[in-house]
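so ive been stuck on this for like two days lol. basically i have the seq below and the ligand is zinc ion, smiles is in there too. i just want the complex predicted, nothing fancy, no docking runs or whatever. if the output looks off dont worry ill sanity check it later, just need somthing to start from for the group meeting slides
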Amino acid sequence: MQPELSRERIVRCPKCRSDQITGNKRGYSFKQIGKMFITMIGIGLLILIISNLLRATLSTLLIEIEVLYLLFTTALPIAYYMCFISALPVSLLYGLKGRNNLINSCMQCGSQWTPK
Ligand SMILES: [Zn+2]
């Protein structure tokens, strides 16, 4: 008798403890798209704000140091433009990631979770 083992084999809903569980492929995740999109736009905005703030405070230094000047006038704008432009396609691709992962759904309460 191994009660521990048999209890583990039955998947139960973490919310209502029901054993009426179905496993499905997760499919395309709109939640992931949204998260990735907000993150990319956020990073772009952050670079934009920081570079503008630094450019304002370091303006005299920037003229003297060519590398810094190039960084603020070329590299950083490219970086945030890339973030904005690629935000949508990257997010859409990111939504595909893990679409074949299995998720369990409870037929009793409708709760969904990823099996470990
Ligand atoms: Zn449930």
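The chain has two domains: 10-26+104-116, 31-99. The chain has four helices and three strands.
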